[in-house]
Amino acid sequence: KQEVTQIPAALSVPEGENLVLNCSFTDSAIYNLQWFRQDPGKGLTSLLLIQSSQREQTSGRLNASLDKSSGRSTLYIAASQPGDSATYLCAVRGRNTDKLIFGTGTRLQVFP
Amino acid sequence: DAGITQSPRHKVTETGTPVTLRCHQTENHRYMYWYRQDPGHGLRLIHYSYGVKDTDKGEVSDGYSVSRSKTEDFLLTLESATSSQTSVYFCAISEQVRSYEQYFGPGTRLTVT
Prior knowledge:
Distance between the termini of chain A: 41 Å
Structural class of chain B: mainly beta
Largest sheet of chain A: 6 strands, mixed
Shape of chain B: globular
Radius of gyration of chain B: 13 Å
Number of strands of chain A: 11
Number of strands of chain B: 11
Oligomer: heterodimer
């Protein structure tokens, strides 16, 4: 059974720092991995999707990497801003399933 | 933003009453999902649909049923609401040609008293 873990559960950093959020999964037979952002009281916003054949994806200040063999993905946020404060979730889709398995998220606070 | 709406956005109901939540999409995506989100449990899949009248169970389907009679609408019914079903419910959609990337609705906050 696929399990997805995100460490740390919470992170507080000063504005301007580059930071890395981690996502680990137990079954490397994945179809893709998706990173989301969730603001308090809101739905999830898709940030990046990495296919199993890809090593990384970039969108603006965000870069997500994927290492299937080690069961890890990282989300790199460059030059963090207070507006980046949110909960970040990763989710994995297996090869033979229509379902996503979610981690429990990292709650990020960026202070001025 | 993907065209996904959920109704109602907030609901308070009493234990034992039936409740139906609606998800409506304007994207013509084949796949639709219902999740619940609870502190300490994260997002858990309740039911999903892979086409009109085609549905399957997720990991927490007990006490819930779904129906999809049109591509754009996916209904979640709590047959007899219990306090343990107090949660935030999210609908999501995806499509194969977009690599099954999931897009989420704004959520429905349900309180069962």
